[in-house]
């Protein structure tokens, strides 16, 4: 197999949620100068690019995912000059910068929407999706991903507009060529500034089914990967393809079977996709365990769909929309916390694809013990909470669900030190800091050779310098083993095998002939207080990486 090299295949990514990363103005909200002040930290970690979630002007109903001006920086975060400095300084360190591109919808405060809603005849009316109501109220029964009807009535013009997310996030009308022209020129404007690519938000929702369509079993189906979306995506691809950039689409509703069409090496719309299959398998119910067999199957499906140079994967276990992986896929219990966080690093970092680490994941940050709904900021979580109360659930039971499921778990400020405000700010931040900052923080972990942080550094270093772990093929071993995830990577004669116990119990493996570990050299392990050379007996959450000995 000939290797088709690309910088975005070789680099390890790091997602920054700026509100919670580093605050230099001490207003309790992170900022661009905060990111600049931590570039050395990211360089030292081995990061090749950062993805910054939206920093554009926004009324912040959905924390920046409701954009009111695509070409301005939100003043809470800083200025355009500071952004340009950030870009320059990152580039000097060899770190590329990708931005969030939110083009399914805008804020209801965007000038296009203000115009659009001003009259039925306005020139911008068709920038959004308007429809007359029916005797039952809204034009149809579609529901929003954030809860409630997907339609909002506008008193002024007596029509409804569509919003797949919050009512303050009206959906743009992609059937209008003017909308596309405006968006595409904005994209070019950012790329001309020298940014290195985009994470493309909610892109599988840009095409809507005919409004007569009735919501079926999947209530989001009328606006999720609807046939005809290809035409819009092809146009978008033509804009992207002119440059050597990284593009990763957020692709809820796209299956591994369709992956080739979306990210095929030749004609795909994006370089890679954030798929939702493996991540939806996390444990929403405390009593339930991770279903290791299903988890491996979901990951393997995507690995195989894009194998042999057909396409490329985006690898992740965390982002700003889901709870912390160590809490959901691993264990917060003191005895298991560290080893499970390290084990989870190896479950995704060395697969075929580009790994994305979410801020705080590299130190093993956990879910937040939210006490009341007052502690919550996320709009979808609040809607969900009040819906639960409506159905008769009491507050404590509803809060228990929120603690396990809210995306605010991932949004608590980054824990840099054990100080009062975790070295993030000098005052109470916009979202409470996790009380476990004393045990989990960057400073302490930097000084502890056995820390999760230092383990991540080793894994990143290993991947950065090993072609076989980047470009090699992927093979799943022991697919039916209920505890162990065993996979191989191979490039010509160079072979690696990764063995991870994803359970709290000891696990023994009957490894196949070709992965007899006596013939292999141990490169990396997450346990140093355990008799490692127990060969085929694995301690809870034990994880090892081996390389085949070539004489
Ligand atoms: C994406 C973002 C999420 C946001 C939504 C609406 O799913 O990741 O944070 O709320 O799109 O823009």
TrEMBL record:
InterPro entries on file: Alpha_amylase (IPR006046), GH (IPR017853), GH13_cat_dom (IPR006047), Glyco_hydro_b (IPR013780), O16G_dom_2 (IPR045857)
Cite the entry's keywords alphabetically. Answer: Carbohydrate metabolism, Glycosidase, Hydrolase
Stretches that traverse the bilayer:
none
Task: Give the enzyme class.
Answer: hydrolase
Where would I find the Glycosyl hydrolase family 13 catalytic domain in this sequence?
15-411
State which Enzyme Commission number(s) the record gives. 3.2.1.1
Reactions accelerated catalytically:
Endohydrolysis of (1->4)-alpha-D-glucosidic linkages in polysaccharides containing three or more (1->4)-alpha-linked D-glucose units
Domain of life from the UniProt record: Bacteria
- Family assignment from sequence similarity: Belongs to the glycosyl hydrolase 13 family.
Protein known as: Alpha-amylase
Q: What is the lineage of its organism?
A: Bacteria, Bacillati, Bacillota, Bacilli, Lactobacillales
Q: Which gene encodes it?
A: malA
């Amino acid at each position: 197999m000939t290797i088709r090299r690309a910088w975005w295949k070789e680099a390890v990514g790091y997602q920054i949620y700026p509100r919670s990363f580093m605050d230099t103005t001490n207003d309790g909200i992170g900022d661009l100068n905060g990111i600049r002040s931590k570039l050395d930290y990211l360089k030292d970690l081995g990061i090749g690019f950062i993805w910054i979630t939206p920093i554009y002007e926004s009324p912040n109903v959905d924390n920046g995912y409701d954009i009111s001006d695509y070409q301005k920086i939100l003043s809470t975060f800083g200025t355009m000059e500071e952004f340009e400095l950030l870009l320059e300084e990152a580039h000097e360190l060899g770190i590329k910068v990708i931005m969030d591109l939110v083009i399914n919808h805008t804020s209801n405060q965007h000038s296009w929407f203000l115009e659009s809603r001003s009259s039925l005849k306005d020139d911008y009316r068709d920038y959004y999706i308007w429809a007359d109501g029916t005797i039952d109220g809204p034009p149809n029964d579609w529901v929003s991903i954030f809860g409630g009807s997907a339609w909002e009535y506008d008193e002024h013009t007596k029509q409804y507009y569509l919003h797949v997310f919050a009512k303050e996030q009206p959906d743009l009308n992609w059937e209008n060529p003017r909308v596309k022209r405006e968006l595409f020129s904005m994209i070019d404007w950012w790329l001309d500034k020298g940014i290195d690519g985009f994470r493309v938000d909610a892109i599988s929702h840009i095409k809507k089914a005919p409004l007569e369509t009735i919501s079926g079993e999947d209530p989001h189906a009328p606006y999720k990967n609807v046939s005809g979306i290809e035409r819009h995506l092809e146009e978008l691809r033509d804009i992207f393809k002119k440059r050597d950039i990284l593009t990763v689409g957020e692709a809820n509703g796209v299956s591994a079977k369709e992956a080739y069409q979306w990210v095929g090496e030749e004609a795909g719309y994006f370089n890679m996709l954030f798929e939702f299959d493996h991540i939806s398998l996390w444990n929403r119910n405390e009593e339930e365990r991770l279903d290791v067999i299903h988890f491996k199957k979901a990951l393997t499906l995507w690995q195989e769909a894009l194998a042999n140079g057909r396409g490329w994967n985006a690898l992740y276990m965390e982002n700003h929309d889901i709870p912390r992986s160590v809490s959901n896929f691993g264990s917060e219990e003191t005895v298991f916390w560290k080893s499970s966080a390290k084990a989870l690093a190896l479950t995704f970092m060395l697969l075929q694809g580009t790994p994305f680490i979410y801020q705080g994941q590299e130190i093993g940050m956990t879910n937040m013990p939210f006490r009341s709904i007052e502690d919550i900021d996320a709009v979808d979580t609040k809607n969900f909470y009040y819906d639960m109360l409506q159905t008769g659930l009491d507050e404590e039971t509803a809060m228990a669900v929120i603690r396990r499921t809210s995306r605010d778990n991932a949004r608590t400020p980054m824990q840099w030190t054990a100080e009062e405000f975790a070295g993030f700010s000098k005052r109470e931040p916009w979202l409470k800091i996790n009380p476990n900052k004393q045990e989990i923080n960057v400073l302490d972990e930097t000084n502890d050779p056995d820390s999760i942080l230092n383990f991540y550094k080793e894994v990143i270093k290993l991947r950065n310098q090993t072609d076989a772990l980047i470009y090699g093929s992927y093979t799943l071993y022991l697919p039916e083993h209920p505890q162990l995830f065993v996979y191989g990577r191979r490039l010509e004669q160079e072979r690696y095998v990764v063995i991870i116990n994803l359970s709290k119990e000891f696990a023994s493996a009957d490894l196949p002939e070709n992965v007899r570990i006596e013939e292999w050299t141990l490169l990396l392990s997450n346990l140093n207080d355990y008799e490692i050379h127990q060969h085929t007996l694995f301690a809870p959450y034990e994880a090892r990486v081996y390389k085949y000995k070539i004489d």
